[in-house]
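Good morning,

Attaching, inline, the backbone tokens for the sequence recovery test we're adding to the shared suite. The designed sequence is right after.
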């Protein structure tokens, strides 16, 4: 029972803290709303706020989204090439092992 009271106390204090945090976060403006209003300094257009600032922030987000997609595609392509390279290396190593085993086998037959 004491554990339940303690958990209830902790849970209610956490939700109060989250509520106050949400109010503080919700009071500030979003990206592109201007310097000092949550938009931060990002150039004169974004500092002025308004629709131009929001558009600049949206274009910036779009740019980085596209850049990240390109980087992921390049990483995926590179990884496929690495896999193909290693598969080829495995094939060559297996062939080399077979050659060496044949040499050992042949040399054992000649010594007998």
């Amino acid at each position: 029972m004491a554990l339940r009271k303690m958990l209830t106390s902790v849970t209610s204090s956490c939700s109060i803290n989250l509520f106050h945090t949400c109010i503080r976060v919700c009071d500030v403006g979003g990206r592109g709303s201007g310097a000092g209003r949550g938009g931060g300094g990002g150039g004169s257009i974004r500092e002025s706020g308004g629709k131009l600032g929001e558009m600049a922030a949206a274009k910036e987000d779009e740019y980085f989204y596209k850049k990240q997609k390109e980087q992921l595609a390049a990483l995926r392509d590179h990884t496929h090439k690495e896999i193909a390279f290693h598969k080829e290396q495995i094939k060559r190593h297996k062939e080399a092992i077979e050659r060496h085993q044949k040499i050992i086998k042949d040399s054992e037959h000649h010594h007998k």
